[in-house]
Amino acid sequence: MKTTAHTMMLEDRYGLHLSTSNADARDAYVAGVDSVISGVAGYRESLARALALDPSFALAHAALARGLFLDAEVGPARTSANTARALCDRVSERERSHIDTICLGIEGKPALAREAMLKHLRTWPRDAMVLAPATSVFGLYGFSGDADHEEQLYELLESLAPAYGEDWWFETVYGFAACETGRLNLAWTLIERSLAKNPRHAHAAHFRTHVMYERGEIGEALEYLEAWMPGLDPRSLTRCHLSWHVTLAALAAGRHERAWQAYRASVHPGGAWGPPLNVGTDAPSFLWRAELAGQPRSEQLWHEVHDHALHHFPTAGIAFADVHSMIACIVDGDTDALGRRADEIRQRIADGRYPAGEVVLWIAEGFAAYAAGHWGEAISALERALAQTVRIGGSRAQRDLVDLTLLAAYLKADRSSAAAHLVERRMHLPQLLNR
User: Fold this and answer.
1) pTM, full prediction
2) 82-89, long-range: CB within 8 Å, 24+ apart, which pairs?
3) What's the half-sphere exposure (Cβ side, CA atoms, 13 Å) at 284?
C-alpha cells in the first residue's frame, strides 16, 4: 500500500502530516478541528468545505464524526466514522491509528478507545484530536468510574506538556486538569495564557470560571461570564453549560431574577440548544440548588425536566445522567421510573457493566430522604456516597450538588460541627446556599 502518493506533504497545526494534497482542504480541516476542540460553532461549515475540496480526506470525516458526536447526533456521527474507516487504506499509519481511536469512542467502546489513545500518543503525542476525548469530564477518564481518574488525567497531560509547549488548546485542558486536582495556581496561569492567545476559546473561558468557582470568586465569575458570553455563537456546544454557570453565580449573588432568566433561556429543556447530557444534568442541578438556596419550587419545570430525562436517558448506563435523572424522578414523584432505574443499575453492577458502582444508588437514596424531610437518613446515605462521588464523573463544581445537599441536611438536623467540617473542605459552599 502506498501512503505517499500525494505530490506534496501538508501538515496540520501540530506538524503532523496529512493525506491530502489540497492546501485549501487542509486549511479548512485545521479550522474545523480548532472549532471542535475549542467548543465554538463552525466546524460543520469548515469540514464541509474540506470535504467538498477533497471528498477522500479521511481525517476530515473523522473530525466531523467527533463534532457530531459531541453535539449528540450519534447516528450521523457513526455514519461519518464509517466513512473515515472505509478510507483508511489511503492514509498513513498515523492517520489509521487516529481514525481508529476516535471511531472507537463514537462506536461506544470507551475502554478500547482509551487503550488505543494511550498507545497512539506514545508515538504521536501531539495528535490533539486523539487526546481530546480524554480531556472532557464526560470523556474517557471522566466516565471511567475510577476514583482517581482526575489524577490519572493530570499525570497524562503533565507527561505530554513538553510535546505541546505553549499551545493554546493544550494549556487549557492541562489547566483544567490542574484545577480539578486542586492545583489552582497552575490552573490559572495556564488558562490565562491560553486565553491571551485565543480569547474566544470557549473551553478556556469555561475552565477559567471553574478556577474562580473553586477559589470562591463567585461574583467575579458572574461578571466575567456576562462580559464574555455575548460573543459566543448560540449554536456552540458550550452555550448551555456556560449558562448554567451564570445561573449558579447569579443565584449565589442574590440576583435571582437573572438566574431564572438565564436558566429558562439557555439551560431548561426547550431553551437555547444544548446537548441532552448537558440539559439533562444541568437543569435538575440548578432547580435543586435553587430550592436549597430558598427559591420556591416550580412543579411544571421539574415535570419538564423529568420528561426530558426519561426521553433522552430512558435506561441506566451513564452514571452522571442516572444521578440527575433519578433526582428528577424523586422530585416529580415518579417512583416507578425511579425503582426501574435503580433495578437496572443493580443488574448492570452484577454484570460488571457499571463502572461507577453503587455510589449512584447511595446518592439517590440520600436525595430521596432529603426530599422527604428525613434528615438523618439523608445524612447517612450522602456521607456514605461522598468519598465515592467522584466516580460518577462530571466536574468538582457539578458534584458539589451532593456536598450542598449534605450541608443542608446537616443544618436542618442542627449538626453544626459536621457542617463546619464539610465547609472546611469546600469553603465556597455557604455562598451557594446564600448562607
Assistant:
1) 0.94
2) 83/58, 84/58, 84/59, 87/56, 87/58, 87/61, 88/58, 89/1
3) 30
Three-state secondary-structure class, residue 334:
coil
Cβ atoms 395, 210 nearer than 8 A: yes
The answer to whether 153 and 126 are in contact (CB under 8 A) is: no
Q: Which three cell numbers stand for residue 416?
A: 453544626
Rounded Cα gap, residues 228 and 193, in angstroms: 16
131-140 residue pLDDT tens: 999 998 999 9
Q: Tell me the three cell numbers of residue 122.
A: 506514545
**Per-residue pLDDT reduced to its tens digit, 223-278:** 999 999 999 998 898 999 999 999 999 999 999 999 999 999 999 999 988 899 99
In this structure, the answer to whether residues 172 and 210 fall within a common structural domain is yes
Residues 165 and 77 in one domain: no
Residues 6+ apart with CB under 8 A from 83: 58, 61
Cα distances (angstroms) measured from residue 55 to each of 49, 84, 91, 179, 247 = 10, 11, 13, 41, 43
Question: What is the enclosing helix (H) or strand (E) of 18?
Answer: strand 17-18
CA dihedral 274, 279, 282, 283 (to 10 degrees): 120
Same domain (yes/no): 127, 157: no
140 with 106, same domain: the answer is no
- Share above pLDDT 90 across residues of the chain, in percent, rounded to a whole number: 93
Residue 326 buriedness (CB in 10 A; 0-12 / 13-18 / 19+): buried
Gap between the Cα atoms of 121 and 191, Å rounded: 23
> CB under 8 Å to 381, separation ≥6 — which residues?
362, 363, 365, 366, 369
